[in-house]
Amino acid sequence: MKMELMLGLINKLKNDNWLFNDLVEPFKIELQKKYSNFTNVPLPVNVSNYFYETKFTYLGENNQSYPVVLNLHSNNKAIIDFFLKQLKYKGRNLSIEMAELNEVHFSRLVESVNEICRHDSFFFESINQINLLICFFKGENFISTSSPKLLGTIFINKSVFETLPSEIDITIVHEMAHQELFLLNMVDLLIDSNKINNLAHARFQGYERPPIGRFHSLHSIFRMTKYAEKSGHLLFEKLRVDYLNALDDLKVDELSSFGAKIYNQIYVEYRNYLIRK
After folding, report:
1. 203 and 182 assigned to the same domain
2. Is residue 136 domain-shared with residue 205, that is, in the same domain?
3. What number of other Cβ atoms are within 10 A of residue 99's Cβ?
4. What is the pLDDT of residues 114-161, one digit of tens each?
5. 155: exposed, middle or buried (Cβ count in 10 Å: 0-12, 13-18, 19+)
6. What is the number of structural domains in the chain?
């Protein structure tokens, strides 16, 4: 990674900015080079654009729009089923199927994205940059998931809209953090190559994970805690404790040079701020 890009990414993290503007375009260029002989290259990043019907809603005072997935194209069901089989959660294959939202659920989704944008001026730009698609599922009891094999797509359990409407915004921020780290991990390993398979207990998940899994935990909780603090979210105190635990669960000597810089300059500094607060 070029030094100027590395410094730029760290500075953006220090300023609470998301990294999609810096990471999506280079990835798209590389993707075009790799698949230049194919006619149906899924660009921009999101590979799911071919498989979902999108409905547009309006966001904010400037009538800006963003896509939200509601329905599958039935003739692409086999392709969707293939991708869903790639998704894993806590190391196991999932048994999920897509679900549609009713108008009440959809309104809650719009309110939640609006709420995020009220407290995070960079968020709307980020979801447009990655061409975010939000998919809804049923059949499992976890809240949400993402996969680098479905880059740009986040999956949220339909039940969240019924039982945990106050956590929809936190859930979206959580999954966007994973998307951000998927892209960052394409430009730097983040982990010491000799320690990729080190297993250690991750308190947030409650089981052993390799360093990149614990890095994902830390980064997602970092983003959630930052957002909860700015928005006065009722989950802030819980997330604050989760963040401190996740930081302890990832050891700096497991990381690459760049990963260690993020750890020390971003995550440790935020921990110090939380302790002083």
Report:
1. no
2. no
3. 17
4. 889 889 988 888 887 777 778 788 887 888 888 777 777 788 888 898
5. buried
6. 2
Host domain of residue 201: 189-277
CA 70 to chain CA centroid, Å, is: 19
Report the percentage of the chain scoring pLDDT > 70: 77
Beta strands in 109-197 (DSSP E): 133-138, 144-146, 153-157
Sign of CA dihedral 163, 165, 170, 174: positive
Helix pair 168-187, 103-119: axis angle to 10 deg: 60
Residue 191 is given by DSSP the state B
Residues 84 and 203 in one domain: no
Q: CA distances (Å), 233 to each of 35, 116, 168, in order?
A: 43, 11, 11
Tell whether 131 and 193 lie within a shared domain.
Answer: no
Helix (H/G/I), strand (E/B), else coil: 276:
helix
Does residue 46 register a pLDDT over 70? no
Task: Say if 4 falls within a structural domain.
Answer: no
Query: What helix, strand, coil percent values describe the chain, rounded to 5?
Result: 55, 15, 30
* Average predicted confidence (pLDDT) for the chain: 80
Helix (H) or strand (E) holding 109: helix 103-119
CA distance 8 to 4: 6
- Enter the pTM of the model: 0.85
Instruction: Scan for tokens 């979210």, then name that residue.
Output: 233
- Give the residue from 187, 219, 245 where a domain finishes: 187
Co-location of 37 and 170 in the same domain: yes
Structural domain includes residue 9: no
